[in-house]
Amino acid sequence: MSSKTEPVEVMYDGKYLRMIRRGTWEYTERAHAGGLAAIILAVTPQDNIVFVEQFRVPLQANTIEMPAGLVGDIHADESIELSAVRELEEETGWTAEHAEVLLIGPVSSGSSSERVAFVRVTGLTKVGQGGGDGDEDITVHEVPRAKAAAWLVQKLGEGYQLDAKLWAGLWMIEHHLDGTPRV
């Protein structure tokens, strides 16, 4: 069993990720950006949930996800909320008046030190096409909230990989963290 006091060995240090060994435990961490990503829960004024589709190299497949991005990857001192609004606009062409961090937790606590923040954005305005930056090829989907779960199941049946955090995001769109429904 590894402990907090065991020495850290950097087994690999890449441009974006590093591989760490602490005792007998091996895991990854982000080489930059503080190890925190924001998942953006965005519902348009037309009551559509904003999803993104993109090819993910590790999976060798197209995925359906909620818009997301690394916190502090552009500006080291950028807040979670500002990072979320910036990523939302870059990926989807929507901007938001307000962003609220709902929950922060580990992505895969057995293999990575990375954490994710679920961020609810409100006051959405369409300001562009989205599609990501020059290295990304993102397709934006706006799906009626009432049909979102069925649409995701359909996409799963079509062979898309679905980020499991989608289901937590859908729940948070519909509920307060204490479980009571949003009205």
Structure description:
- With 183 residues, the chain is α+β, with helices and mostly antiparallel strands.
- The chain has two domains: 1-31, no CATH class; 32-174, Alpha-Beta Complex (Nucleoside Triphosphate Pyrophosphohydrolase), CATH 3.90.79.10.
- Helix content is 18%, strand content 41%.
- The strands form three sheets. Strands 7-4-9-8 form a four-stranded mixed beta sheet, with helices on both faces.
- The protein is globular and about 55 Å long.
- The mean pLDDT is 92.
CATH class of the largest domain: Alpha Beta
**CATH homolog superfamily of the largest domain:** Nucleoside Triphosphate Pyrophosphohydrolase
Please give the largest β-sheet.
4 strands, mixed
How many helices in DSSP terms?
Answer: 3
Tally of DSSP β-strands: 11
Uncertain regions: pLDDT < 50 for 5+ in a row? Answer: none
CATH structural architecture of the largest domain? Alpha-Beta Complex
Rg estimate, integer Å: 17 Å
What's this model, at a glance?
It is built from three helices and eleven strands; from the N terminus they run βββββββαβββαβα.
Key terms:
183 residues; alpha+beta; Nucleoside Triphosphate Pyrophosphohydrolase; 2 domains; four-stranded mixed sheet; 3 helices; 11 strands; 18% helix; 41% strand; globular; ADP-ribose pyrophosphatase; hydrolase; NUDIX_hydrolase-like_dom_sf
